[in-house]
Amino acid sequence: MRHVRPAPTTAAAGPVPDFDTFFAIEYRRLFEVLYLLTRDRAEAEDLAQEAMARAYERWSRIRDPTRYVYRTAFNLHRTLRRRLAVAVRKRAELLPVADHPDAVERRLDVLAALALLPATQRAAVVLVDWAGMTAEEAARVLGIQPVSVRGRLHRARAALRQRLGDADG
After folding, report:
1. Phi then psi for 35, rounded to 5 degrees?
2. Model-level pTM?
3. CATH architecture for residues 100-169
């Protein structure tokens, strides 16, 4: 009996007929998630483009392209962060801290609070609360069970409430 591989799917739209359609559906959301993760537009674009390029190269072998591009982008981001940390340690100097206008203080507080979360919790919050994925879709992207995504969300939201204050009282 010959094994028939299922058609590629996206978190947003189900089956995808080709790479161009997948790119049109997923690129913007991938970029936006990466922008929230990195807080740098150019880095987010680079990561999204590299993840999509890798997906294109392997398109005929990828079973779940959405999961593939998010995992690839997250892994590329982790690798980049590690390289940066090594470079900073080697130079033994701190990165300069820029002054920010008061108008964006709350936004910066939120970004700082997100940055303090463990990467696993931050990824869950960004995928579910910002990108609008369900726990099941985020679980597929992260390669974990939906119950694990919900647990990470619960812990992340509690930590964010503690750091930022509970807006509901």
Report:
1. -65, -45
2. 0.56
3. Orthogonal Bundle (1.10)
